[in-house]
Each structure stands twice: as structure tokens, then as C-alpha cells.
Amino acid sequence: GYSLGTALLSLPELREVKELLQLQAQQLGDSQATRIAGVLGERLATIDDRSGSSAVRQEERAPRRRWIQPTKPLPALPDTAGRRASRSQVVLIEEAIALRQRLLLSAASNPAIRSSGRRRAAPQVQAVWPLQLLLHSGSWWLLLEHDAIGQPVGLLRCLPLAGLHMYPAERGPGRELQLHQQALERAGVLERCCGGLWFGEQLAGQQALCEQVSAAPSGGSWSGVAAEWLVPLRLRCSAAVLAALRRDLDRFWPAAVRLAAALPGDSWGRPQQGSAGLIASAASDLPYPVEVGLPLWVVSGDSELRRWLFSYGAAIKIEAPAELAAEHRR
Length: 330
Fold this sequence. Notes:
Elements: H1 2-7, H2 11-28, H3 31-51, H4 54-58, H5 89-99, E1 103-106, H6 111-114, E2 125-136, E3 139-146, E4 156-160, E5 166-168, H7 177-194, H8 203-215, E6 230-237, H9 239-249, E7 257-258, E8 288-295, H10 296-301, H11 303-310, E9 316-320, H12 322-329
Antiparallel strand pairs: 1-2, 1-5, 2-3, 3-4, 6-8, 6-9, 7-8
Helix pairs in contact: 2-3, 7-8
């Protein structure tokens, strides 16, 4: 009785849960949220009818939350009667994630795999471990780990879900839960280190970065951490631009970001976290230096980083690395 009582939510809480599920269903195109919200709505309607409080159900309340950012719905294949392959890709992927089973990924269906840059042609089908579905910048992505036969870990990647073609690889028991959780932990480290979903194409770099970051003191300096894989991104900007930059810098590992303390008369309205080590110059039109330690593959090939930096145009001056600075000037 105690367990049942503590597990139940009150009617107002259940109605709020239904609102949140409906929001997720409408804005994200989540079919699972649609199904659960429908079942919960039917049960709440039955309770209202029996208790005589149908007025509460009929009262149309304006939603208290709404997401403005446009989001593409989760892609699904059209149903075809009598064919097992007609199941949506999302259902196939979510089942494989829940059971920790491998899937076969068609290499020809995704440009990110076709353009891997390897000398020998990539196999037409690759075995992967799906880990999570991610909503990033209004689009859905699949976090996966390549099945490296004979190796304890595989290359982690995030690929756009639209355009992927996945096929079942096995029906037996999946891999150990510990391996699945370790892969998610490594992906979390890489996401913070990279500031996005581009994890590169070198397993050695991912391993070195994850191992040394995990061994570094929490919040400590990044000096000496995977130095061969890190590149300092240095730029200068005005106070107004730095106020906008600081909001975006939160997605990077805190120990990798170095800023300068505010000059007299400038303030960003929150604590000066990470504002040690650099010095602002009041004599310059771009007085504030910014430095971010990033993996080599992010600086050399992450299109999202370039869109972010280049959107400021001449309001920032990239000082290092030289290749990125020259690209920005062009």
C-alpha cells in the first residue's frame, strides 16, 4: 500500500504530465509520446466523468510551455502490408538500443561514411551499436559506436538520422550493460570536449582524449591533457561580442576555456567563471582575448564550429590556428 501510494501522482500532476507529453508529441513528432499522452488522456477523461468534474476536462487551458525552435519529426518508413521490413527506422533503432543489439548500417546511405577519406573503399554495410537518439539544432541524430572486432571499444560517431538505412544484425542477447554505459560516458566526454557532435574519425584520438580528461582533476587546467590532440583556438573580440560568445562557450569543457577579466565599465551580469590567465587590452578595438582548447579534428573539420565563428564576421579576429584564421579572412 505504501509503495502504491508513493508511486501515484495527483490529478493536477497527471494533467501536467499529459501536457508535457502532448508538447513533446507535437513539437518533436515523437510517436511514443503521442501514444502515452493518448492513453493518459483517456484515463483522465474517465476519472473526470465519474467524479462529475467534466468542467475541468472541457476547460481549454492555454499551454504554459511552447517550443519555438523548428524541429523535424523523427523519420519513419511508410508501412507496407505483409512485410517485416516496413517497420520504421526509429522503432528498429530504439528496440536495438533497449536490447543493446547491433544493427547493420548501409554505408552508401550516408555521405559522412562515404567521405571517410580512407584509401581503401569502406564496406557497403557496417556493424554498429546504436546508443542514443539525439535532438540537436532542430534535427535528429543517431549516436553510435562502430563494432570494432577484437578491440575493447569502437569509434564513436553522431550521424544525421535522416537518410540512414539500418537493418537488423542479430536476434540473440545483446552486449553487456557495462559496455553500453561506458560508451555513453565516453560520448558525454567527447561532446563536452568538442562542443558539438563532430567526434572525428580517429579512434586513437578519442581514446587519448577520454582517458586523460577523465584522469585530470575536476575543473583543473587542461595543460598537458592530450596535448598532441588539442589545438588552441585564439581570437579577439569587443565587449558586446564577448557577451554573446560567453553564452555559447558554456557548451565547451570549462577547463578548456580561458577568458580575460572585464575592463572597468564592462560587465556581463554573471560571475566571471574561467576569466583567469588572459589580459584584456583597453588600447585595442578588440580588447578581449578568448582561448578555447579544442580537439584537432574539430578545428580542422567541424562545419558547425565554422558557422558559429564566421557568423560574427569582422566583429572577431581569429589569431590561431593560422589555417582557420586564413579561412576566416577569406
